[in-house]
Amino acid sequence: MTRRSKSTARRSSRRPNTSSSGWSSAATRPASSCNLKGDLALTPPAGGAAQCLLVQAREKVTIRPLDPKSRPTIRIAYDQEAPRPLVALTVACPQVEVEGVRFVVDGCGVNNLEMAALHLRPGKHKVQRCEFVQVQPSRLPDSSAAVRPFSSLVAESGRRGKDEVSVRECVFFAFGQKDGVDQDASFSRAEAGGRDAVVRRGPVKLDVSGCVFGPHAAAFRLEGDGGDDGHKMTVKNCTVLLPAARSAAFELPARATANLDVASCLFSRLDLPPAPDDPDGAVFLRQAEERPDAVTFNGTDNVYHDLDGYWAVGDGWRSADWETFRQRNSNGRVVLNWPWALPVVKFVGALNGPKLRDALQLNHRLVALRKERRATADYVGAETVLGERLVTGPLRPVEDKTDPAPAARAARRGGHRGRRQRHLSQAAPGRAERPAGRHHPDPPRR
To answer: Rounded to whole angstroms, how far apart are CA atoms 69 and 384?
Structure first.
């Protein structure tokens, strides 16, 4: 990493300070523009304590690759030392732009670790075209012990309440398995999902657009008081995948509030059987407690596919049906068909490839996936992934039909379709997308 100007970048091989976030504090160098020449492995492969990076300044800092065509990786892994907070990169300055960087956080599957890829302290920040990867994310504790956060991006508010974070064209993915011991080993089991992708702490004005979220327990975890209308959280043109397990696009723990404006997004649950030991469901929004006024939601032209529930309180996903959700927000639609061009097995294989562009190709036959259901409009969801456009050239014509599938196929698959079909069947007539002559079509053959 090359560093210039008046700010400071800190790195240490000693144990990080075990204060609130656990970043290092050792030698300093000038740095207002941090240009990454290559990959940074913050955990020594031969053993020893992990190193954490802190960039601190009183002015704007830019962090990007030295070569604009490259995507250098900042990698941190659990180091077998005593568990303590590990954050790959913490930024403490009034403004920062982080662009074109790949972050990898490896929890080694250890129970209840506190780790993060990028922590943005109070300020006005931009994160663009970055890739965030969780590998073997820390498992939740088996007991009633306090849950430690494991996340990719953390946005923190300050006392002044004027903090803003813009996240554009980023990718958030997680893999349950690392296929080898080397740091360059491939990853697999993307369908298992990660923990928290984006964490908002306090009243931060958060603007997220054009991003892709692979399966996570929570795409957005919104902690604390979200503030007034000036701290609205805006999510537009994003694609959010949810695992076939307890998960939520938006998760609000106890005492959390939020003002959400969500538009032209696609929320899709993987069409896989849930784990036998996970009776919970994948929902759009989950509140830890019943507080009707804690969340303000404005949704426009969003598409919901295969969710087990929509607006759930605690473990009550069974009562979080579509009709109740429509009473809060009527501008959206349920898609009963598999929305992706690849069948589910090949889709999951492409996620693990990783061949994200192949995996995220949409089923062009479904007009419901077009904005405002107009046959000539662009698709909802993200338009690019890792700098590649998902659709190139003219849009293909809409057929708005699906391949027929025998009804007996659902019975052969087992019971995992039952719980979500109960919710889909409550979709109001005219709101759910159904092909002619079929009430609940099956997804493509596996």
So the answer is: 16
